[in-house]
Amino acid sequence: MKLVFTIIALFLLLIFLFRHKSIETKIIINQPLNHVWQIFTCISSYSEWNTLFGLDQFPTHIGQIITVDLYDENRKVQFRMRPVVKELDDYHLEWEGKLYVNGLFNGRHQFIFTQIDANTTQLIQKEDFIGLLVPILSYFIIRPTKLNFEIMNESFKKYVEGHSHR
Question: How far apart are CA 73 and CA 108, in angstroms?
């Protein structure tokens, strides 16, 4: 009986200690910042490069609820979420979504575009996961998500660099 309580206590301690996880990817895009941002905000072109998700509309203000369709490897909608826009300004978009109940598995996603020089832009895509299920879903959800960020970043870079600034 003591062993069962010890195992349960250790499990609960692990959940409490490891309920936060962050992932981040970066990529350099050889195009000017304004051009990269313009393409990113044009959701009608998402089907040509975005392997990770689709938006019902590009957000216009903080507090807005948007619809995000997350794709599987065949670009079929795997999951639909309705996150809240937390930050939206020049070259930065951030939203926060949750899995059913707040605190169970929340994700705060960011796209940050910065100018390296007149013809070079860096895209940082990151997500902070917080919640009770983070330790359990880390291997099955969070690790593949980072790989999907990298795939999407590469696809976006290729698309943007193929559509030169005019």
Answer: 22
